[in-house]
Amino acid sequence: MRRAFVEEALADRRAVERELHDGVQQDLIALSIRVQLACRLAEDDPGALPALLDEMRADLRDALERLRRLADRVYPSLLAPFGLLEALRGVGIEVDAHDLGRLDATAEATAYLLCRDLEATGPVDLRLDAGTLVVRFPAVPDPGRLAAARDRVELLGGSFGVEPRGEGVYVSAAIPAARSSAR
User: Rounded CA gap, 70 and 169, in Å?
Assistant: First the structure.
């Protein structure tokens, strides 16, 4: 099980590296070239400069948004300051939290990655029951992702279940958790 978890982590790192190289790095190279063009236009055709700068501004916004999405795949920016509920809502996942409150960082990160990696397709039900975070949601039935998620939860001492439902599956996970004083 530990080997599968390590292999999954390495595959995730390779995917991030590819996205950095093929996405963000290429965006920055293109912007660098356009800055050089803008410098030449400032001397040769200053009237054309505002349009080019507007295009560059839009390209920069797009590149920053792609970088933000990539960073959120590595570790969601909303998780630490605002917690699991806001991080899930921030990526468009509907949540029924039952007055959950903040939990320890490991439980929150595990639940977030579980919902994101398994592509929660409906409302996520979150409950704290006797020191265990119970997470239930409909998901896409990808066997590789399900196995990796099971490994992640079980490595923490939790339990994981999958129930076929129509075209998808219903995932249940119990993750050891403690309330946090973080706000």
Answer: 27
Work out the average pLDDT over 82-106: 88
* pTM to 2 decimal places: 0.70
CB atoms within 10 A of CB 8: 18
Backbone angles phi, psi at 51, to 5 degrees: -65, -45
CB 115 within 8 A of CB 88: yes
Q: Is 124 exposed, middle or buried (0-12, 13-18, 19+ CB in 10 A)?
A: buried
User: CA–CA distance from 31 to each of 24, 50, 53, 183 (Å)?
Assistant: 11, 15, 10, 39
Q: Given the DSSP bridges, would you call strands 95-96 and 124-129 parallel, antiparallel or unpaired?
A: parallel
Compute the 3-state secondary structure of the chain and give helix, strand, coil in percent, each to the nearest 5: 60, 20, 20
pLDDT of residue 6: 64
Tokens of 9: 């982590």
80-93 per-position pLDDT tens digit: 899 999 999 988 89
In the block, tokens 């039900």 appear at 125
In sequence order, which residues have a C-beta less than 8 Å from that of residue 98 and are 6 or more positions away? 125, 126, 127, 128
Q: What is the rounded CA–CA span in Å between residue 128 and residue 98? A: 8
